[in-house]
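Here is an idea for our session: we take a single protein and study its fold together. Start from the sequence, derive the backbone structure tokens from it, and show both lines together. Once you have written the record down, we can walk along the chain together:
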Amino acid sequence: MAKMHPTPMLDELEKGPWPSFVTDIKRLAEAGKDACADLLGQLELSYKDKEGHWKHGGIVGVLGYGGGVIGRYSDVPDLFPGVEHFHTLRVNQPASKFYKTERLREVMDIWERRGSGMLNMHGSTGDMVLLGAFTEELEPIFAELTAKGWDLGGSGSALRTPACCVGKARCEWACIDTQDICYDLTMEFQDEMHRPAWPYKFKFKVDGCPNGCVASIARSDCSIIGTWKDDIRIDQEAVAAYAAGEICANGGAHGPDTKLDIQADVCDLCPTRCMSYDGKKLYIDNKECTRCMHCINLMPQALRPGTETGASILVGAKAPILEGAQMSSLIIPFIPMEAPYEEFKDFVEKMWDWWDENGKNRERIGELIQRKGLQEFLKAVELEPDPRMVKEPRYNPYIFYQEDEVPGGFERDIKEYRKRHAR
């Protein structure tokens, strides 16, 4: 058993009905992990001093990689030698986080022998996060992981580990093969993941449908969201069954006797009011539909996505670090997403080139688009402006055009205006 430190303040976190990380770390410390015992001691000191006791001791990593390891050192190593070095390794998760038990045991065995034994399942980007390794153990841990087929994820100003929802493996709504896309991007952009060279981090996340189970629209610099181009499929007999209460709403989520009011619950709550119901049949003006899936979620046995599927590409989401949180904005309304995804990758390369050339230090691509303007971004990625890219009407009515952007009927007026003012 490791030497335990008195932790009266941390002990308070074990009280109450909820599970406590303190209890978990104590369990490892009692099993003989010095790093865990000293981690608790240092955390207690941080609570007492009201300041963190970690310092950045320079770049640390494994040979050939610039990312995947986050360096951390204690600034009181004489008091807590078990956490003098406390580096974190990010291990690239499989698509959709599907693990075989024996594969997890491989990682756990390596980590029990060479690290602190603590880990997070998972980080916000998805990596398996191994917490607490000494510098001299990094290369042996990396060698053993790669020998078993594992790899490190992204960290620093690099491409972070792509992540996706369960996709077609478990979900009937998936419009794209999220797992194949996630794996393909991970393999294609290895250099961008392991060798940080950008202004700041960049994240791909793949949602199989507009329900957005990995919240790509809020959590990724480039959101890939499965969608469809044709009409929503309607089973009018099932619509009638919902209206009659023969099929309960929301798949029975609110009880077996939940009767659906199609006019109030479906049509009136449609964000574009593109649906109507005459008491017998449901009608959808599909050209006005924004694919929000509200109606499909309410009546899954009556409505299904169309069959001409692909993805919408959005760019620019981030958390509130420098300029505040923002959601990603629609850039490509519809793109086919079938292997080898060349059209999408061509867009990505153009986007990265522009960001790499124009981005400031620690500036995410969404912030750069805000600073330089959507027009500059669209020129760089060679896309035409589309009304669907507009988040909201501009507040400033003084809109100025370049002469070559004005329709022919106005060119004469502009020339006359310039002549008058030139005098």
